[in-house]
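Lab notebook: predicted structure, single chain.

Context: the supervisor wants predicted structures on file for every construct in the current expression panel, including those that have not yet been purified. This is the next one on the list. No modifications to the sequence; it matches the entry in the shared construct table.
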Amino acid sequence: MTVLSVNVNKIAVLRNSRGGHEPDVLKAAETCLRAGAQGITVHPRPDLRHIRPDDVKALAGISDSRSTFNIEGNPFAPPHGAYPGLLALLEQHQPTQATLVPDSQAQLTSDHGFDPSLDASRLAPLVKTIHSFGCRVSLFVDPGCVDLGAFRDIGVDRIEVYTGPYAEQFTCGIIGSALDACHRTATTARQFGLSVNAGHDLNQQNLPVLQRAIPWIAEVSIGHALIAEALYAGLSVTVSNYVRLCNR
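Prediction complete. Output recorded below exactly as produced.
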């Protein structure tokens, strides 16, 4: 079974566009969990464009043994204003999982993964520190990346395959090279004893195809498409649909 973790960043984007408290990020997360989602994901950024540190605190409070809490972010991004830095958030709230992503301040969204040859050595002490907080560590990697031994050697628990290129090809009616690249990375990860997560632009159409190709995916993190679909069908119904797909 694949765990569904719902990324609630887009709820915060809508709230921040108007100010105030609506829509309520915490209420949205609770709705997702009641509908069967097994986890909640957030990706706070230094510019506070969506999820804020106070949101992270509130969401950490609803996590229990039946659900996972996943905090994503760039561990090298320094504190900025009200943003204390990823490591400070992890230490304070001790989520189930920390997903490390090499996104820059200027990026609209995550669009590439870590490079084992360039990043493993500088990530090593951070992975050790994050483990001391009691968090599982997952690294965002590009599809086709197979040099994963370096990440295993520094103690990484999981990799998250960046599925953006696969989703883009799928939209164009092409299911080939990008899916093959995802499969190659996921297969190599399993050979190295690393669990496999996947995320970025997954939706109800392309997720089943990815699962058939890589049935050992442990967790998918889905936000943008799920929230967009929920505008038409409702949040609870949409989450339930995804849960059914993940449980196939």
